[in-house]
Amino acid sequence: MNILRQPKNSISVIGSSNYDVLLKVNEIPVAGETVLATGMETGFGGKGANQAITIAKLGGDVKFFTCIGGDSFGKLYMNNFMENKINLEFIEIIENEHNGIAIINVDKDGRNDIVVYPGANSHLTTDMIIKNEKDIFSSKLIITQLEIPLSSVELIAEKKSNNNVFILNPSPLDKNVNYDPILKNVDILVPNEIELAQLSGIKIDGLKGLDEATDKLLEKGVKTVVVTLGSKGAFVRNEDVQEHLNVRDVKVVDTEGAGDIFMGSFACSYLKSRDIIKSVKFANEVATISVTRYGTQKSIPNDDELNKINKMFN
Ligand code: RIB
Predict the structure, then answer these.
(1) Distance, CA 224 to ligand 1 centroid (Å)?
(2) Is the CB of 50 within 6 Å of ligand 1?
């Protein structure tokens, strides 16, 4: 699939690779409760890998910097990278370390909670960033999330130049961390509404609060904020634009990974068009298909579906 074929050195994704164990439950259990799952699935996930593989499936030229475990999950993951045509050059195998694992509960309405054990992901240190500096910063877009050590994200934010567009998906957030030093260097921030509320200190209720909260982030130095709002679509805010973009109504079964699939498709489209609104509309379409099926990478639309979406936008 090469619907968005791109020149070399287009996109660097630096991030996590997790083996996902998904349990289908009627209700998400509360603390102290035991519930029986109604089904289970396993698959490949991790925010970084989900984003990188979405880009690869769209035909983007992606370099993926990640660490996987020396255990059996890590070995399975290596095959997954090969199947998805991810260049293995920037992938480190950490011997005597578990691969990152995510335990995901999905309830009958498609809501989820996720617990991640970072394992090998915690080895994606500043040393690895420095070692790969030339390859990372020669890319036009640099994408990361917060499932790797914070010091590495800080270093990327510090080192990025005007030749790079730095896109941060601030997930998962730690309430005790001050992210302002990173935010001042972010070109495009892609939070969901919960992350937006935490970063801005402004309560979000439906679409209420989005203006004020995104204003706060612009004040902190972020150039553009793209808020993902699930079934309510997305909200874009920068110096020139303030726009809410709706999504089609679909039967949602599992929203897990949709934010990552949005990120990957947004980045691909943005690299080609440099048009934020068009790229959000494109990413909304791709992510909308993904929520109609279970899993993360498993739910990325297939080639035919991606081709159809691409035709709508070109
Ligand atoms: O965003 C979904 C992802 O979050 C899952 O694939 C899981 O591994 C966690 O990283």
Answers:
(1) 24
(2) yes
Query: CATH number, domain at 228?
Result: 3.40.1190.20
| Domain carrying residue 279 | 8-17+47-75+85-93+122-313
Q: Catalogue the E-assigned strands of the chain.
A: 11-14, 18-24, 39-45, 62-69, 91-94, 100-106, 112-117, 141-144, 165-168, 188-189, 224-228, 234-238, 242-245
Give the DSSP letter of residue 28. P
In a domain? residue 257: yes
The verdict on whether 215 is a catalytic residue reads: no
- Asked if residue 20 has its Cβ within 6 Å of ligand 1, the reply is yes
Atom nearest to 49 CA in ligand 1: 6
- 288 assigned to some structural domain: yes
Q: Residue 307 — pLDDT band, cuts 50, 70, 90?
A: confident
Total structural domains in the chain? 1
**Closest to 287 in 3D by CA, of 54, 104, 56:** 54
Query: What is the whole-number distance in angstroms between the Cα of residue 117 and the centre of ligand 1?
Result: 11
Mean pLDDT in the chain? 95
pLDDT 10s digits, 194-251: 999 999 999 999 999 999 999 999 999 999 999 999 999 999 999 999 999 999 999 9
Which atom in ligand 1 lies closest to the alpha carbon of residue 259?
A: 1
Q: Which of 135, 260, 303, 304 is catalytic?
A: 260
Q: How far is 137 from 142, CA to CA, in rounded Å?
A: 7
Summarised one tens digit per residue, pLDDT across range 168-184 is: 999 999 999 999 999 99
For the entire predicted model, the pTM comes to 0.95
Q: Is residue 3 part of a domain?
A: no
Domain assignment present for 30: no
